[in-house]
Predict the 3D structure of the following.
Amino acid sequence: MSPWTARWLVWIALFFCLEIPALLNKQDGDTLSEHFWAWFHVKDSRHTPIVWVLRGALLVGLAWLFFHLGFGWFTPTHPLPGR
């Protein structure tokens, strides 16, 4: 196992060490999703321009993550599909 693989596995384990206790308690505002919702004003019923900009940034980031992790696109060695 490479040192990078070990570090990523530790990072994932630390994430679950934070997320699982947050999921198991009934307190609001402690999971990663609840933090994202707060940061990106997801539950804000006021549809101000900044809310739409933040939601757009979240959508673009999630689309990038989907194509990057799902298909291996948008990497330094393969920046565009099919190249």
